[in-house]
Amino acid sequence: MMTKRGSAIFLALFLCLLVFLMAACGGADHYIGAQAAKEIALLDAGLSETELANVAVRLERGDAGTVYAVRFQSDSTDYYYGVDVNDGSIVSFSQQEVEPVMAVKETEPTLPLDANEALLLACRDLGVDTSEVNNPSVLADRKGGRLYYLLEFDLADRHYVYDLDAESGELLEKREEPLTKAGTCLDAELILELPSRAMAELGLAAGELCAFSVGKTIYQGALAYELELKTAEMEYELRFDPETDAFTLISQDRRES
User: Fold this and answer.
1) Are residues 35 and 97 in the same domain?
2) CATH code for position 74
3) pTM of the entire structure?
4) What's the Cα-to-Cα distance from 60 to each of 66, 84, 146, 149, 157, rounded to whole Å?
């Protein structure tokens, strides 16, 4: 998804920053991958894919180093695992009781759609049952008084993204891409690159970054990425639009000493 830079100088700077940042973590080529991190967390929890809801894996960096933050829910328990990106060791873990997730409804959807019904419509569009998809996730966004859903899931060797209008049931957009050999969608590479690109956008040197996190969201009905960067003195929040390949600075605040 990377676009060519018009300036060779900027490209060289970006590559240097990327290499420096990833070298500190052993390099992106040595990361175990989001799918492997999820499997490690499931094995430790003693759960299978069919028992899960609200699965999310994101890359985070903090005091414990760079980890895959794996979150999922089973019945009335919400789990969090921090899995080391290089060796797969579990560096942090927590769980808490939450409201149980309702089973996916296989009845005829009614308007406005709930999250389970939105997933059911997306599966019907592909001619499959909801039990056949892996790693489903649903994000809700309300814009102009209307509710929208961004759905993502894996099916066979493909990763699918659906945008649905919950009020009308209309399919607004459908995207798909092949899964990598590691079982993650191709934008995992983009997620690894975004912190360095954001630093270049802010004019920060590689050594200034203390911590970062990257996560998916929906903004104005479309897929976007939100980043939080922390230096010794400042905190930045940015949004990245993959369609325009551009960053928007949401906020910057001085950190309390």
Assistant:
1) yes
2) 3.10.450.40
3) 0.38
4) 6, 10, 32, 25, 26
Closest by alpha carbon to 238, among 203, 206, 256, 214?
A: 214
The residue among 213, 249, 204, 250 whose CA lies nearest residue 231 is: 204
Place of tokens 């909801």: 130
Domain that holds residue 51: 31-101
Q: What angle do CA 49, 55, 58 make, to 5 degrees?
A: 125
Per-residue pLDDT of the chain (257 residues; tens, 9 = 90+): 444 444 434 434 443 444 344 444 444 446 787 778 888 988 898 888 777 777 777 777 777 678 888 888 877 788 899 998 888 899 999 988 765 544 444 445 566 777 778 888 888 999 988 888 887 777 777 677 777 888 888 888 888 888 888 888 888 889 888 875 445 454 555 666 788 888 889 998 867 877 777 777 777 777 788 888 888 889 999 999 888 889 999 999 998 76
Strand pairing category for 65-74 and 222-230: unpaired
User: At which of 156, 178, 200 does a domain end?
Assistant: 178
